[in-house]
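Appendix B. Chain record.
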Amino acid sequence: MSAGPASSSAAQAVPLLELRGIERRFGRPLDLAARIANRLGADIDAQVVHAVDSVDLALATGEVVGLAGESGCGKSTLARIAAGILEPGRGERLWQGRPVAAMPRAERIATELKVQMIFQDAFASLDPRMRVDDLVAEAPLAHRLIRRAEKDALVDTTLRQVGLDPSAKRRWPHQFSGGQRSRIGIARALAVRPELLVCDEAVAALDVSIQAQVLNLFMRLRDELGLTYLFISHDLGVIRHLADRVLIMYLGRIVESAPTAELFAAPNHPYTRALLAEVPTLAQRRRSYQPVRGEIPSPLAPPPGCHFHPRCPHAMPRCAVEAPALKAVAPGRQSACHLNDAT
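Structure tokens predicted for this chain:
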């Protein structure tokens, strides 16, 4: 079942971007020693990482969806599939109701430009051999969105949009601070006039005060340009500040989807409750905070049934053999937990 938009009106509209039944696995072939061992009678299997497991996702136009979960749960892989950087192993990616893979080549390229990704490490994502004006204008020129004579005007306008002085456009990436480099990365994405930004831990590497500035920039750009966001973060405080709706991901699966205020007020899934219990608050500042019990299992060998059952305090025998479906538990809310069947 799709993790659809929170409001019924948004749910009835055709999503801007939709992912259906997305799976992605990464295999590592056997090395020479393992192949020789197999020839001699050993039984060594190639390792396969189950990164994303049957995920449905729909983003309504103008919506900000937060995707949260522990490191290694598959958030970044799903983000890259949503942005078109990775192809899914199985499943379908649709733009405004149409499969992207079936579009004619020219239309597909134009569609892919409408979805841009902003990475966690802004410095690593910027070519150190290119000046800022060339970084920002590279894609618009390559895709013939502007003429060469329009380059300076585009760069100046885009840098102002993200709060940078156009007089710095001939500088190199290493001459900027971390927060400024993040703004350059955003400017580069905006230069091709996208409709959807996929932000993968886009503020995680920044100081708290700079984080707030960049988050406020994202919200201002949403209002000014009508942008839609898929915002990936392990920081639930950031998600709470930014998102209209929150998806919780665990070991390749979406386990809960809910409007932000409702999820933080009354989480349904045991994993969501455990994550929120880790978030410090002023009202409970004397409380001793504990991480989620146990270690996240390896995606090389995910547990059968509900992936969370080895760490869940409410696990039942059924949880170890049957994977719960993501289904409605309230209007606009979905959860994948067998406990909901018992209530």
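Further analysis of this model is presented in Appendix C.
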